[in-house]
Design a protein that fits this description.
The chain has 3 domains: 90 residues, MurE/MurF, N-terminal domain (Udp-n-acetylmuramoylalanyl-d-glutamate--2,6- Diaminopimelate Ligase, Chain: A, domain 1, 3-Layer(aba) Sandwich), CATH 3.40.1390; 210 residues, UDP-N-acetylmuramoyl-L-alanine:D-glutamate ligase; 155 residues, Alpha-Beta Complex (Protein-Tyrosine Phosphatase, Chain A). Helices cover 37% and strands 20% of the residues. The chain contains 16 helices and 20 strands. The strands form 3 sheets. It has a 9-stranded mixed sheet, with helices on both faces. The protein has a 6-stranded mixed sheet with strand order 15-16-20-17-18-19, sandwiched between helices. Helix 5 links the parallel strand 7 and strand 8. It is globular and about 75 Å long. The N and C termini lie far apart (59 Å). 49% of the residues are buried.
Length: 481
């Protein structure tokens, strides 16, 4: 892979040679910030974070094959000066962005930027699958959507890529515009407007204003893909959409990519979808909200000029993410496990509860396990109580046998559910650890339908692992008899 020369990297970052390269030194083929990766031919950037200082791993970077490193002035032990060519900068995080700024204009790829309160990663994965079927593609790894992840994604793109698909996230006003300026997308997708990151963005209107800033950087001839009828977003579009940008809407019946029909095909939530224009395709992801995510991906793919004949098989081949509303029937116990523990906000919880009701219709028992939703600011108590009432509404339609709430904030949800007259087993835990995860799993019986969701900081994957382990152990015990 052709990449920037070491001297070009130095110029782009405004750095100075702390240790100049020797004659015949290798030029970098990629950029990395992690010495656990294969660093053969890599330019290692030593970032300084809250928990780790990348300068402590310079020797490891050299052993792993890095050809040079970017370091912050004054942070490098002189004993390491002979290990690698070193470019000294004032701030290595800013230097990482500067490298991405220098690399972005060299890419021929059509760039798609994706943001939204929920669904960013799902739409990115669906669109990535479609683009990869159409030509060489680079896309965000996992949820690389911030001031570090986005530059790394851009730097991983190849000059001959046809498509570059990136996620763009935010916690505070101005972040999306800053990242969008770096990504310079040709197509912008807003997946949804919902009550996430209210601690930083203040209100639903604040969320909409932040998300819509992604559209402001679109060039003439670009495409904006947005959900139909998205309240405050719709009101902002006339004033923020650049001249010459085509607006594509999706989701609602009657829109260019409207959802006309949705049939669930089995216990794992696979769906058959039909659009208003007659296009039919299968989707392996469960839930109405994922049907909307699929519409967003189809609209973006069409904006890229990718034909439906490529879209249909490619979108149908995308597998559920292991922690994003993946429905798994545990054969060892007959337990239906709806795992959605990657992240959480009020709107996402309500959408997932609706999907749980849909998939658990024939289960003998239903178990709901919910944890704290983080970054909701002053409204967190009221929004958690709202979730308790949502569980009560679900209980009226499809009775809930066990409701478990984990975390101090979730006590508000439990109280609201109790006030609604819930007569199932109600369990509250102020915190979660490995032992308590096992306790939660012990409540689950063979054949149960189980739904688990919480913000990422709650580490609910411990509960998922404990449920799986208990299911397998129970099967082994029965086999032993």
């Amino acid at each position: 892979m052709t990449f920037l020369s070491l001297e070009a990297c130095r110029e782009a970052t405004g750095g100075t040679w702390l240790v100049p390269p020797s004659d015949g030194a290798l030029e970098p083929s990629k950029v990395s910030i992690d010495t656990r990766e294969d660093l053969a031919g890599a330019l290692y950037v030593a970032l300084v974070g809250g928990r780790l200082d990348g300068h402590a791993f310079l020797a490891d970077a050299a052993k792993a094959g890095a050809c040079a490193a970017i370091v912050e002035s004054g942070r490098v032990d002189e004993s390491l000066h002979g290990t690698l060519p070193l470019i000294a900068v004032e701030d290595s995080t800013r230097a990482l962005r500067a490298l991405a700024e220098a690399w972005r204009p060299r890419l021929e790829a059509t760039v798609v930027g994706i943001t939204g309160s929920a669904g960013k990663t799902t739409v990115r994965r669906l669109l990535q699958g479609i683009c990869e079927a159409a030509g060489p593609t680079t896309a965000s790894i996992r949820s690389f959507n911030n001031h570090i992840g986005l530059p790394l994604t851009i730097l991983s793109a190849r000059p001959d890529d046809a498509w570059l698909v990136v996620e763009i996230g935010t916690n505070a006003p101005g972040e999306i515009l800053d990242l969008a300026t770096l990504a310079a997308p040709d197509v912008a997708v807003i997946t949804s407007i919902g009550r996430a990151h209210l601690e930083g963005l203040g209100s639903l209107e604040g969320v909409a204003r932040e998300k819509v800033s992604l559209l402001e950087v679109l060039p003439p001839g670009g495409d904006a893909v947005v959900p139909a009828g998205a309240g405050p977003l719709t009101d902002l579009l006339p004033q923020c959409l650049p001249e010459g940008v085509a607006l594509q809407t999706f989701g609602a019946d009657g829109t260019p990519v409207g959802l006309a029909m949705r049939n669930t095909l089995g216990a794992t939530g696979a769906q058959l979808l039909r659009l208003d224009d007659g296009l039919e395709f299968e989707l392996r992801l469960a839930g109405e909200h994922n049907a909307s995510n699929a519409c967003a991906a189809v609209a973006a793919a069409r904006a890229l000029g990718i034909p439906d004949s490529t879209i249909v098989p490619a979108i149908g081949a995308v597998e559920p993410d292991s922690m994003r509303l993946s429905a798994d029937l545990l054969e060892s116990s007959g337990t239906l496990l709806l795992n959605d523990v990657y992240n959480s906000n009020p709107d996402a919880v309500q959408a997932a509860l609706q999907t749980f009701a849909e998939l658990s219709a024939y289960a003998p028992r239903r178990v709901v396990i919910l944890g704290d939703m983080l970054e909701l600011g002053e409204e967190e108590a009221a929004l958690h109580a709202e979730i308790g009432r949502s569980v009560a509404r679900l209980d009226a339609l499809a009775p809930i046998d066990v409701a478990i709430f984990v975390g101090e904030r979730s006590l508000h949800a439990a109280s609201a559910l109790d006030e609604c007259g819930f007569d199932g087993l109600l369990v509250t835990l102020p915190r979660l650890d490995e032992v308590l995860a096992g306790t939660v799993a012990s409540v689950v019986m063979d054949g149960d339908a189980v739904f688990a969701k919480a913000s990422r900081g709650m580490a609910f994957e411990r509960i998922i692992a404990a449920i799986r382990e208990r299911s397998e152990r129970r099967t082994n015990e029965l086999a032993g008899h």
